[in-house]
Amino acid sequence: MDGLDLAYRPDQPLRPQLLELVQQKLALLRDPHFIDLARVAIAAAIHSPERAHDMVARMGEREEGLTTWVRAAAADGRLKTDNPLFASMQLQGLLKGFAFWPQITLSQPALTPAQQAQVGEAAVDMFLACYGRPDSDV
Predict the structure, then answer these.
(1) What is the pTM of this model?
(2) Which of 18, 69, 123, 131 is the most exposed place for a label (fewest CB within 10 A)?
């Protein structure tokens, strides 16, 4: 459950929609309660791999908002991917590489609003450069 809430809008350009979703994701990754919960979950997974498998299975039962959005945009022909889950995971990897893993594993400070904007815009632009259709209103 990621808290992301933005339905794909076929009549709107992709970039602003995706930027809004990415900013929601970055806000979640910055939330101190989320960070604390993630640390506890990761520690539990290290100590009990079988419990980690159960957690992953339960989390997989509900598709994440970003993946739902990518799936809808791809089905509408505006993104060129036949694997929306993979594409969504790539985008999330770009975000988490700056705004999650350094904070979780190295106790780095949360990104500033300016850093969040830079990371979000760069990730969206890279994603759309790879998956956006040239004939689509990006």
Answers:
(1) 0.84
(2) 131
